[in-house]
Amino acid sequence: MQIPEGKKIYFASDNHLGAPTPEDSLPREKKFVAWLDEVKQDAAAIFLLGDLFDFWMEYRRVVPKGFTRTLGKLAEITDSGIPVYYFVGNHDLWMDGYFEEELNIPVFHRPQEFTFNKTSFFIGHGDGLGPGDNGYKRMKKVFTNPVCKWLFKRLLHPDFGMRIGHYMSVKNKMISGDDDAKFLGEDNEWLVAYCKRKLQEKHRDYFIFGHRHLPLDIQLNDSSKYINLGDWIQYYTYGVFDGNNFELKNY
Questions:
Q1: Considering only CA atoms, which of 194, 187, 249 is closest in space to residue 224?
Q2: Helix-strand-coil percent breakdown of the chain, rounded to 5?
Q3: pLDDT by residue (tens digit) across 41-60?
Q4: Tens digit of each residue's pLDDT (9 = 90 or more) over 188-198
Q5: Given 11, 37, 111, 139, which residue has the most CB atoms within 10 angstroms?
Q6: Which of 230, 224, 227, 222 is nearest to 197 (CA)?
Q7: ∠ CA(238), CA(239), CA(242), 5° rounding?
Q8: CA-based nearest residue to 235, from 217, 219, 221
Q9: Domain assignment of residue 3, yes or no
Q10: Structurally, how many domains does the chain consist of?
Q11: What residue numbers bound the domain in which 236 lies?
């Protein structure tokens, strides 16, 4: 993608709308929608790197109640011709066509590579990557197994299924990531280790992830950086690339 003069690429992650309750998250949702309204003025594209919702499960003809302001604003943005890209996180693994069909937003379940103005980006949510975290990796295989998803949707009424999913998202530490929301030191950051391993295969200028809920800007070598976008719960941080430089900013 060649970024037009005066335009920018925006990145955000980890809003966890609906947590701990829809009422409590409503002010955060309104703040995020206000941000979307501002950045659409000069956005060449917007990347949302997962966990927009604290729990999201799509049945064949049912989607979660709520988040009307966010979904409406995203529809407005894509209808205006600004592309939006979505990467599923560990709280919204179960997206299954709604964003693509209703909002014209491509949804990615694995990290992807992009090039903007000859600058290379490796972009993803970040869960289940790098060394360790074996308990969550096993759990993710179960959650994404087609048979398990089919049984969940067929055996549980959506009202009951959504209640269970929301409870698990808040209470299960392997899913919620509460234990991860502190800096471990560069040598112990597993996403840093993952990025360094990927650099041995191929150069990328920027590795952009969410999931950690921490705004991080770490130099991997002389010409490559790892960026974590933080969250919209405590930090309200986002990334912006103007075609030359990448910055983490606070809203």
A1: 194
A2: 35, 25, 40
A3: 999 999 999 999 998 888 77
A4: 788 999 999 99
A5: 11
A6: 224
A7: 140
A8: 217
A9: no
A10: 1
A11: 8-250
